[in-house]
């Protein structure tokens, strides 16, 4: 079955540490997205990528970095510059050929906490 | 700019109906609706396009009023499985292909 796999499900970060969240999809989608969700709030866009080797900042990119070396993979690094990283992180993908007319498919998320 | 959802929360008895609204200050190209269970990933429900179309899936339907820049989600004869948080996501002019989500409406269906 096609889908999006995020790992790990739970992650703990120490002060001053960078951590990387994995996102892999086998839906053959061109576009991939990273969202942050805080308790009781909606989804805020961190970064998105429409094509391999290209990505754009979303609304809250500060303290985060991404890469898109393969179509299937879009890892997110939470750097030490992100002072409040505790949140639920969701990765999504879609076929952008239809612009805003295609649904986004989400992974099961990674819950990041500070030690 | 984030679309505004209302109400923020609603509690129903099984079999009752509910309406969730989503409004934007920008001209909209499309509106997406998703449902998220606690601690899980959002699940796609439907997309509505410009043209005021109405779509439905079983007892959940939605409308899109392009002129008013609003969409409404209708849940008819609610089931226990409808409980969760409902998000609208909008694509608007100048959104650069980004989906902007509302803050969500928490729906609780009681037996």
What is the gist of this entry?
The complex is a heterodimer of chains A (115) and B (111). Chain A is mostly beta strands. Chain A is 0% helix and 49% strand.
Describe the structure.
Chain A is built from no helices and eleven strands. Chain A has strands spanning 4-7, 10-13, 19-25, 31-37, 43-51, 54-57, 64-66, 76-78, 87-94, 105-106, 110-114. Chain A is globular, with a radius of gyration of 13 Å. The model of chain A has no long low-confidence stretch (mean pLDDT 91). In chain B, the strands form two sheets. In chain B, strands 2, 4, 5, 9, 10 and 11 form a six-stranded mixed beta sheet that branches. The radius of gyration of chain B is 13 Å and the shape is globular. The termini of chain B are far apart. The model of chain B has no long low-confidence stretch (mean pLDDT 89). Chain A binds chain B through residues 31, 33, 35, 40-45, 48, 50, 56, 58-59, 88, 90, 96, 99-109, and chain B through 2, 29-30, 32, 39-44, 47, 49, 87, 89, 91, 95-104.
Instruction: Give the quaternary arrangement of the chains.
Output: heterodimer
Q: Rg of chain A from C-alpha positions?
A: 13 Å
Q: Count the E strands of chain B.
A: 11
Most extensive chain contact?
A-B, 28 and 25 residues
Q: pLDDT under 50 segments of chain B (min length 5)?
A: none
Helix count of chain A equals: 0
Shape of chain B: globular
Largest sheet of chain B: 6 strands, mixed
What count of helical segments of chain B does DSSP give?
A: 0
User: Which radius of gyration of chain B do the C-alpha atoms yield?
Assistant: 13 Å
Low-confidence stretches of chain A: none
Give the % helix of chain A.
under 10%
Largest sheet data of chain A: 7 strands, mixed
Shape of chain A: globular
SSE ordering of chain A: EEEEEEEEEEE
Number of strands of chain A: 11
Mean pLDDT over the full residue set of chain A = 91
């Amino acid at each position: 079955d096609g889908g999006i796999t995020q790992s790990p499900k739970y992650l703990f970060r120490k002060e001053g540490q960078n951590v990387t969240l994995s996102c892999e999809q086998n839906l053959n989608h061109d576009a991939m997205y990273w969202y942050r969700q805080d308790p009781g709030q909606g989804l805020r866009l961190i970064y998105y990528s429409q094509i391999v080797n290209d990505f754009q900042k979303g609304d809250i990119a500060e303290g985060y970095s991404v890469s898109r070396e393969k179509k299937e993979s879009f890892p997110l690094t939470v750097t030490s510059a992100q002072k409040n990283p505790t949140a639920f992180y969701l990765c999504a993908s879609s076929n952008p050929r239809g612009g805003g007319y295609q649904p986004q498919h989400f992974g099961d998320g990674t819950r990041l906490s500070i030690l | 700019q984030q679309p505004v959802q209302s109400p923020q929360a609603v509690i129903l008895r099984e079999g009752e109906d509910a309406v969730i609204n989503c409004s934007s200050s920008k001209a909209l190209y499309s509106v997406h609706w998703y449902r998220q269970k606690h601690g899980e990933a959002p699940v796609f429900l439907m997309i509505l396009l410009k043209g005021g179309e109405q779509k439905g899936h079983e007892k959940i339907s939605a409308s899109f009023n392009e002129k008013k820049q609003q969409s409404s989600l209708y849940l008819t004869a609610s089931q226990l499985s409808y409980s969760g948080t409902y998000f609208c996501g909008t694509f608007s002019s100048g959104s650069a292909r980004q989906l902007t989500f509302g803050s969500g409406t928490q729906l609780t269906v009681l037996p």
